[in-house]
Amino acid sequence: MALQPVSGDQGHLWAAADGPLGRGFCLTLVRGRKPVQVVRTVGGKAHEMVYWRQLVGPGDGEAAGRRYFVGMARLSHWTLILQDGDFDGGLGMDPAIAGRLAAGTDVVVCRCDRAGRGRVRTYRDGVVGTDVTDHTEEAIRLVEKRAGIRLTGALLEQKRYLLVTVPKA
């Protein structure tokens, strides 16, 4: 799925209603940990490296299953965990999993649904900090501000992702 530029910057079209993640997603950022460390922390199983097109859109992220189906990539000094689909919660919104991820570090989570509602939650040293609900666009901006990373479509599309399954807590 190619993304169309917005005023010279790809902006957040990836999260728009007609964008690649328009049906919903959960985006989790873990500070200072490499994807392989994150996989171990959550008890996940790494499968293969995939491109954006392979990760986004083909399934429902195992919404009704007993595991999360996610992609992980390195963004600066953060590991991005990306899960697509319209479902309740998501890996980063699961307090048991996010608490383990945030032991000794920071975690920032953005869960957005197909109706344009977003929720941002932060964790520090395993404890929930911020927990706010906002429109998708504002929720993404808050995540960008907390992480110091601009989450453009171009950035997300050019990454290769480690495909991982994680048991639900």
Explained architecture:
With 169 residues, the chain is α+β, with helices and mostly antiparallel strands. It has one domain (13-167). It is built from five helices and eight strands, in the order E-H-E-H-E-E-H-E-E-E-H-H-E. It has helices at 35-42, 52-55, 95-101, 136-147, 153-158; strands at 24-31, 45-51, 67-75, 78-84, 106-113, 117-124, 127-135, 160-167. Strands 2-8-3-4-1-5-6-7 form an eight-stranded antiparallel beta sheet, sandwiched between helices. Strand 5 and strand 6 (117-124) form a beta hairpin. The longest helix is centred in the C-terminal third of the chain and has 12 residues, at 136-147. The protein starts with 23 loop residues before the first strand and ends with a strand. Residues 1-9 have low confidence and may be disordered.
Short description:
With 169 residues, the protein is an alpha+beta fold. Helix content is 22%, strand content 38%.
Judged by helices, strands and strand pairing, the structural class is alpha+beta
Give the % helix: 10-25%
In the sheet with the most strands, the strands line up as 2-8-3-4-1-5-6-7
How many DSSP H or I helices? Answer: 5
Domains (count):
1
